[in-house]
Amino acid sequence: MSPISNVLLYRNGQTLLGKRSPHRRTYPNCWALFGGHLESGETHDQAAIRELREELNIQSL
Description:
Elements: E1 4-7, E2 9-11, E3 14-16, E4 18-19, E5 31-32, E6 34-37, H1 44-56
């Protein structure tokens, strides 16, 4: 199994989660943290930042 990086977004007592597509092979239609698999040569921090940019369009971290 390849390594993954997940991000917990928490502010003012609230946590932001994303809902997985009902068509996903693993954990379909479930609430989840943002993140994904590391790309070749990427650190966990780099993967977390890339995933936030891809999934939430967050450009400034």
